[in-house]
Design a protein that fits this description.
The complex is a heterodimer of chains A (270) and B (384). With 270 residues, chain A is an all-alpha fold. Chain A is built from 11 helices and no strands. In chain A, helix 4 packs across helix 6 (130-154). Classes of the chains: A mainly alpha (270), B alpha+beta (384).
Chain lengths: 270, 384
C-alpha cells in the first residue's frame, strides 16, 4: 500500500469531522451530569435512567415500532406485487403511465403527501391514530419497495419459472417455491428500507398522527421545541447505537457472502 | 469416432418410422399458425414426429424454431390449427399438465436448491411415492455421471456439469417427449462434440423422443434422425441428415447446410433423375441430378458441394462436367485445402481437396489456369 499524502489525510479528516463531530458531541453530552445542555457537569448515566421512566417516550417508541413493522410489511406485499406486474406483464396500454404513477411518490414533497392523506382521512371520517399512520407509511414506502424488488426482478431469468411450470408446478406453486426464494434478499431489503423510512418519518406522521398516538420523531421534535433536555441526547445515543450495530451486521454478512461466493466459484473450477 | 448404433446393428431395417405409413406419430402439427399481431412467426406448419426420434429443428435465429418448440411445451398458444401429443389435443393444456419436459437454453437450474433437490423438484410434484424419489434421483445422477455432486448448488459447478444436471432434471419424470432448446450453445466446441455423443447415448438408453432446437447445422447433422430446416416460420425441408445434405429441395436448404457452389443458368433438360443446365454461351450444359419438381425451360441453378469438385492442371477429357478457371486463393486448413477458382463468367467455385501429401509437393498454386470437374451425379439442379 502506498503511503497517503498529507493532502489526502487532511481532506479525509475534515470530511469525517464534518460528518461525525455533531454526533460525537451529542453522545458525549448524553452522559452529562448537568441539566443544562451546553454546560459539562461531570459524567453520569442518570438521563438514561430517567428516559426509562418516561412513559411518554416509551409509548412513542412502542407506537413507532408497531407502525414500522406493520406498515413496512403491508408496503412489502403491495410493492412486490406491483414490481411483479411491472416487470412481467410486458407491454400493455398505459404501462408507462402505471409505472410512472408508482414511482411518483418518490419525488413528491412529503408535505403534499401528508396533507393529501390528512384530507383523505378527514373526508372518510377516519379517526387519526396508529391505523392512519400505518396506512400513510405503507402508501409512501410501497414505491421504494417496488423499486428495489423490480430491479431484482428485471435480472430474474424467466425461464426459471417456466422450468417450474414444466416440472409440474401450478403458477402459484412456482412463485412460492422458485421465484420468492430467489428474490427474497430484495424483498427483505425492501422491507428494511420501508421500516427505516417509517422510523425516520416526521412530516407525514405529523399530518396523520392524532392525539391518541404519537411516534418517536414527533415526540422528539415537539420536546426539542420546549428546549433540548439531556434525556433526548440519551435517546438519540441509543438510536445511533442501534443503527451502528445494524450497519455493522449488514456489512459483515455481505462480506461473508462475497467470500463464500468466491470459494464456491473456485470449487466449480475443480 | 463412434458411429450411431442403429447404422451398425440394423443395417437391414434402419430406424425410419416416417417411411412407414402405418406408424403412429407421437406429435402431430396440423396447419399450425402463430401470429404476434401482424407478424407471422409460424406459417401453416404440418409436421409429424415419431416415437424415439431425435428430431432437430434447424434454422437461423428468428426463423420460428424456438416458437414451434415452445408450443409443444405449452409456453406459446396456437393462433390457428392444432397440435396433438400422443393423440391428445394440446389446446388449452398448461405446461404442468403435459407429458413433456424441457431443457432450457439457460439450463434454468434453481439456484437456491442443491443438485439433488433440483432433480427431485419435478418428482415431488408428480404422483411418485415419496419413498421412490431418492432412488430415482440417484438413478438420474448415475445416468449423467454426477453422483459426487448431489449436494452441490448449481453455482458451484462448471458449465458442462450444469448442462448435465439440466438434462437429468428434464428426464427425471420420464417424459414421453423431451424438448431441448439450444442445449449445447453455452459449451465450448470440444465439450460440445463430446456432449453430442452423450446426448445420443442417453436418448438411446432412455428411449425418449427428443426434439432439439439448434442453429448449429453440424450439431443437427450429428445427433438427429431427421432434420426440419426452417425459414421465416415455414418448414423448408424435413428429411434425414444425409438427404438434407445430398438432396436439398431448394437453394435455401442447399445454401444453409454446409458449403455449396452455385452456378445459375437455364434448365435445358429434366428427365427422371437426370437434369441439365446451360450456363454460358458455347459451353456444354452441366449434368446433374434433378431436384424436386424441376421442369425444363425454366431458370435454375446447379448446386455442388466443394468436396465433390476435383481440380486438375490439365483438361480431364474423360469427364463430361469440366470447367476452366484461374486459382484465386488457396485456404490451407491442415487436413484439407480449399481452392477458390474464378471462372470466365465471373463466378467463384470452391474445390476442396484432402491433403494426402505434404504441402511442399502441392502441384497447383495461385494464378494457375486449372480445370474443375465433377461426376454427373455429384451435383443437383434446382429450380430458382
Amino acid at each position: 500500500m502506498r503511503k497517503p499524502s498529507w493532502f489526502n489525510v487532511v481532506s479525509l479528516t475534515l470530511g469525517f469531522a464534518f460528518l461525525y463531530i455533531p454526533m460525537i458531541i451529542l453522545v458525549i453530552y448524553s452522559f452529562n451530569e448537568s441539566k443544562l445542555v451546553a454546560v459539562w457537569g461531570g459524567f453520569s448515566t442518570k438521563w438514561y435512567g430517567e428516559l426509562m421512566q418516561n412513559e411518554a417516550f416509551l409509548d412513542a417508541a412502542w407506537v413507532t415500532l408497531k407502525v414500522g413493522v406493520i406498515s413496512s410489511t403491508i408496503a412489502t406485499v403491495l410493492g412486490t406485487m406491483a414490481a411483479f406486474v411491472l416487470v412481467r406483464a410486458g407491454r400493455f396500454r398505459g404501462r408507462t403511465l402505471f409505472s410512472g404513477m408508482i414511482y411518483a411518490p418518490l419525488v413528491m414533497p412529503e408535505v403534499i403527501t401528508g396533507l393529501s392523506l390528512l384530507l383523505l382521512f378527514i373526508a372518510v371520517g377516519m379517526d387519526r391514530g396508529v391505523a392512519t399512520i400505518v396506512l400513510a407509511h405503507a402508501t409512501f414506502s410501497m414505491c421504494y419497495v417496488s423499486v428495489v424488488v423490480s430491479s431484482r426482478m428485471a435480472s430474474f431469468d424467466e425461464s426459471l419459472e417456466e422450468a417450474a411450470l414444466d416440472l409440474g408446478c401450478t403458477p402459484w406453486d412456482a412463485f412460492k417455491s422458485v421465484t420468492l426464494p430467489i428474490i427474497a434478499p430484495a424483498v427483505a431489503s425492501g422491507w428494511l428500507l420501508a421500516f427505516t423510512l417509517s422510523l425516520d418519518d416526521l412530516v407525514i406522521a405529523s399530518f396523520t398522527a392524532g392525539p391518541s398516538a404519537t411516534t418517536l420523531p414527533i415526540k422528539i421534535y415537539s420536546s426539542v421545541r420546549l428546549g433540548v433536555s439531556p434525556e433526548i441526547n440519551a435517546l438519540s445515543t441509543l438510536i445511533i447505537g442501534l443503527v451502528t450495530i445494524g450497519v455493522l451486521v449488514a456489512s459483515i454478512t455481505s462480506k461473508r457472502a462475497i467470500q463464500k461466493q468466491k470459494r464456491d466459484e473456485l470449487l466449480a473450477v475443480h | 469416432m463412434r458411429i450411431r448404433q442403429d447404422f451398425i446393428m440394423n443395417t437391414d431395417a434402419p430406424f425410419a418410422p416416417w417411411e412407414d405409413e402405418t406408424a403412429t406419430p407421437l406429435i402431430k402439427f396440423s396447419n399450425v399458425t402463430k401470429q404476434y399481431g401482424t407478424f407471422t412467426a409460424i406459417d401453416d406448419v404440418d409436421l409429424k414426429i415419431y416415437p424415439k426420434e431425435f428430431f432437430a429443428l434447424l434454422g437461423p435465429s428468428g426463423c420460428g424454431k424456438t416458437t414451434l418448440m415452445r408450443m409443444l411445451g405449452g409456453f406459446e398458444t396456437v393462433t390457428e390449427g392444432s397440435i396433438t401429443i400422443d393423440g391428445v389435443d394440446m389446446d388449452g393444456i398448461p405446461p404442468n399438465k403435459r407429458v413433456v419436459n424441457m431443457m432450457f437454453q439457460s439450463y434454468a437450474l434453481f439456484p437456491h436448491l442443491t443438485v439433488a433437490e433440483n432433480l427431485a423438484f419435478g418428482l415431488k410434484r408428480s404422483d411418485m411415492p415419496k419413498s421412490e424419489i431418492d432412488g430415482r434421483v440417484e438413478e438420474m445422477l448415475r445416468l449423467v455421471q454426477l453422483k459426487k455432486f448431489a449436494s452441490r448448488k448449481p453455482h458451484q459447478m462448471s458449465g458442462g456439469q450444469r448442462q448435465r444436471v439440466a438434462l437429468a432434471r428434464a428426464l427425471a419424470k420420464a417424459p414421453k417427449l423431451l424438448l431441448l432448446d439450444e442445449p449445447l450453445g453455452a459449451l465450448d466446441k470440444k465439450l460440445r462434440r463430446e456432449t453430442q455423443f452423450e446426448l445420443m447415448d442417453i436418448q438411446e438408453k432412455t428411449g425418449t423422443t427428443f426434439v432439439i432446437v439448434t442453429h448449429d447445422q453440424e450439431e443437427a447433422m450429428t445427433v438427429a434422425s431427421r432434420i426440419a430446416v426452417m425459414d421465416h416460420g415455414k418448414l423448408k425441408q424435413i428429411d434425414t441428415p444425409d438427404r438434407i445434405y445430398e438432396a436439398p429441395n431448394s437453394l435455401y436448404v442447399a445454401d444453409f447446410i454446409g458449403d455449396v457452389n452455385i452456378i445459375e443458368g437455364q434448365v435445358t433438360k429434366s428427365e427422371g433423375e437426370a437434369a441439365e443446365l446451360s450456363w454460358g454461351e458455347g459451353k456444354p450444359a452441366i449434368r446433374g441430378m434433378a431436384g424436386e419438381s424441376l421442369t425444363a425451360a425454366t431458370s435454375g441453378a446447379f448446386a455442388v458441394r466443394p468436396e465433390k469438385v476435383a481440380i486438375f492442371s490439365d483438361e480431364p477429357m474423360d469427364r463430361h462436367n469440366r470447367v476452366n478457371g484461374t486459382v484465386e486463393d488457396i485456404a490451407y486448413l491442415g487436413n484439407m485445402s480449399t481452392y477458390y477458382v474464378r471462372l470466365e463468367n465471373g463466378s467463384l467455385i470452391k474445390s476442396q481437396v484432402a491433403n494426402n501429401r505434404r504441402i511442399a509437393r502441392r502441384a497447383i498454386t495461385w494464378g494457375d489456369s486449372v480445370w474443375l470437374s465433377w461426376t454427373d451425379t455429384a451435383g443437383i439442379v434446382l429450380a430458382s
